[in-house]
Design goal:
With about 425 residues, the chain is of the alpha+beta class. The chain has a single domain, classed as Cytochrome p450. About 50% of the residues lie in helices and about 10% in strands. The chain has 16 helices and 12 strands. The strands form 4 sheets. A 5-stranded mixed sheet has the order 1-2-8-5-3. Strands 4-12-9 form a 3-stranded antiparallel sheet. α6 runs antiparallel to α7, α9 packs across α11 and α10 packs antiparallel against α11. The chain starts with 17 loop residues before the first helix and ends with a strand. About 40% of the residues are buried. The structure holds protoporphyrin IX containing FE. Protoporphyrin IX containing FE binds next to α11, α12 and α16.
Length: about 425
Amino acid sequence: MTTLAVPGPTPPPAAPGVVDLLREAAQAGPLTALRIGDRPFVLATGPDQTQEILARRPEVYVKHGHRARALLGDGLISASGDAWKRQRKLLQARFTVAGTRRWAHHITAAAERIAARWETASLAGAPVDIGRDMRFFALDTIWRTLTGTALDEATERELSAVDTVVASLPTLAGARPDPGLAVDEALRQIDTTAHRVIGLARARRADARPDGPPHLLDLLLDTAETEPAYTDRLIRDELVTLLVAGHETTAQTLCWLFVLLDRHPDVHDRFLTAYEAADGPAARDALVGALVQETLRLYPAVWLVPRHAARDDVLDGVPIAAGTSVLVCPYLTHRVPELWPDPERFDPGRFLPGGHRPHHPAAFQPFGVGARACLGQYFALQETLTLLRLLLPAYRPSLTTPPRGAVFGANLRPDGPVRGILTAPRP
Ligand code: HEM
């Protein structure tokens, strides 16, 4: 049996340096040990190791002390054991490929709203705030899915409190969110909004049972009538979890896609040529889908997936002591040159028929792997496709404030605003 040599303590890095330490550690192999400050970690970047940790041994490598517990409470992301199983089972059917179809009209309505906003901006020659519009779109879709109503601007402003809390979350598990006054205030604001919305949904149900299949909040309230575990607190936690998980990630992915197209005009031109020549909607969707997948490869919004060894284990012949913090890193796995030749190149063709991409199921893992993989992956793909079908053939945003780099926080986001001017796709 081999052992992983843990290097001596290093000075605590600034948060953005974490990815550099991980990148350097990954040079040693697909499973390595490192220290960040005075804390030891094990880093997995190989697909085999990732699959063992996330898919084959979920009872050993568990979620623990979730970074966002103050925000998400016992919602699906931070729940564990039987409570997690019960909560996942309840929501799962609404998020399969077929289950997602029931939300298609909400997704379309939210996408048309942004398309109308861009049309107005384009006619007026006014700049667009792509970051803000993508966030509004993703929040609007999940809000409609939860409540059955369109997102209004007052609620959008209230929900900016979510961004305040998410921005305060530490990059690594184990640390607590920054307990600043602004964060406390933001958490209070989120509770107020969540309880108001739950109260409104209850009142509406008391007046008349909603027609048709229930929205997610109705589903949670229905369940509360027979399952005592669904207290008001848990309903609040699940609502906030779906809001948080269901908008930041999608919004950042869409932002990165526009950043990448702006950085690579040649790829953009090739995309448009293929799009115009494509034979029917399925072929066009495949081209847009490949753009989204390649964006998720280079900028997986959930770039780091932390786990905690619940007991002693041996992984790849290496002993892992109970209590070890294990980091799975999609961002680095997606850049392993043996899996992804010329990994930094933006090449959506990898995801088209005949493109070169690895077959290993964990080589591409933007939505995670195993039982705790993303609940909303089909929803996210449907959202991005629906919006991009409207925007890409009509506009070519030219960025006036392109981000210089990325912030590797709880999510992977551009390091500044993403704003631009809308031009025609072809000069
Ligand atoms: C591009 C968009 C998205 C990306 C990249 C993404 C990525 C991920 C990843 C990597 C995980 C697994 C984390 C882990 O194993 O610790 C996850 C979990 C989760 N995601 Fe997403 N996600 C996206 C969109 C969404 C949407 C739209 C929703 C809701 C509608 C959603 C809801 C969730 C939930 C509830 C979990 C926790 C699942 C569980 O623990 O059982 N996500 N997501």
